[in-house]
Design brief:
Layout: H1 7-31, H2 37-51, H3 57-81, H4 93-125, H5 144-149, H6 153-169, H7 174-182, H8 186-201, E1 210-217, E2 223-231, E3 241-252, E4 255-260, E5 264-267, H9 275-280
Antiparallel strand pairs: 1-2, 2-3, 3-4, 3-5
Length: 286
């Protein structure tokens, strides 16, 4: 009578197969005097652990990479404690020092790998960090091709608001728009547009970390409306990352002509007292 393989039996057979495969790979590497035999074996172990994690793939992948150096160091140090017949060896001072240096160097490597995954998580959660300046960083290097193709979310927001604002004003008369500006009703309009566009452009974690604002300049007869976006999230310097663009509104035959400049980045310091600093400190939305 054939025994029917249940889920438990299948898992046990699979586990035994993996264990024997790991032992075989390590034995083959050692017999062929491969220098990195322990690290090859440690890598295979970590791959199996990550593959068995199922729904926790991301966490398991990171944990496997981080623990790989330490597992490999443990495998490499086994030969210092036991001989081929598994008799316990008495460790000399030189052997202890070698094992200590092995584990400390691999622990340092594991810390750097973990730091890499922390940075990756930050960049995935806060894409606006990619607009930061990494020139003075000792460990983060910006790839030129990525920087050239990357458009800061602040600029994307301002460009999107510009288009929506033009659609909003297209069917309105100049007198109506002039009252809309003078009564500062544009704050509510910009706030509604900004909220709508932020949900489309920004990640959920970033939506509360961008401050969007608008300011009407005292100019006649052409009205100038300045739009700005300030990044309030994590950054590598005390200065605020602020982007702005200017839009001019003037009457024409069809109603209102809206002309906007390209969005640009401006540099601010916490103690700045210039016009841009005042502009970026008056919140439109939180």
């Amino acid at each position: 009578m054939a025994l029917r393989a249940t889920g438990l039996v299948q898992s046990l057979i699979l586990l035994c197969g993996k264990i024997f495969l790991i032992i075989s790979i390590h034995w083959l590497a050692v017999e062929n005097s491969i220098v990195l035999a322990s690290w090859i074996t440690g890598g295979v172990i970590c791959l199996f652990v990550a593959g068995d994690a199922g729904e926790f793939n991301d966490f398991a992948r990171e944990s496997a990479f981080i623990s790989w150096p330490l597992i490999s160091a443990f495998i490499a140090s086994i030969s210092s404690f036991f001989d081929r017949e598994f008799n316990v060896r008495k460790l000399e001072i030189a052997a202890r020092q070698k094992i200590f240096l092995l584990f400390t160097t691999q622990a340092l490597l594991a810390c750097w790998l973990q730091f890499y995954f922390v940075l990756q998580t930050w960049l995935e959660t806060y894409p606006s960090l990619l607009a930061d300046d990494f020139s003075r960083s000792a460990f983060a290097i910006a790839i030129e091709t990525q920087q050239q193709s990357f458009v800061p979310p602040g600029i994307e927001l301002l460009e999107a608001i510009d288009k929506k604002l033009a659609q909003n004003l297209a069917s309105r008369s100049w007198d109506d728009v002039r009252q809309w500006l003078e009564k500062e009703e544009y704050h509510q309009t910009l706030q509604a547009i900004a909220k709508q566009e932020a949900e489309t452009i920004l990640t959920p974690s970033e939506q509360k970390l961008w401050k969007l604002e608008g300011k009407l300049l005292p100019q006649e007869p052409v009205k100038t409306l300045k739009l700005g976006a300030t990044w309030l999230g994590p950054r590598s310097h005390p200065r605020a990352n602020c982007y702005e663009k200017s839009c001019t509104l003037e009457p024409d035959k069809t109603g209102v002509q809206l002309t906007c400049s390209r969005a640009t980045q401006i540099s601010l310091t916490s103690s700045s007292s210039d016009k841009s600093g005042e502009f970026c400190s008056s919140p439109l939305s939180n």
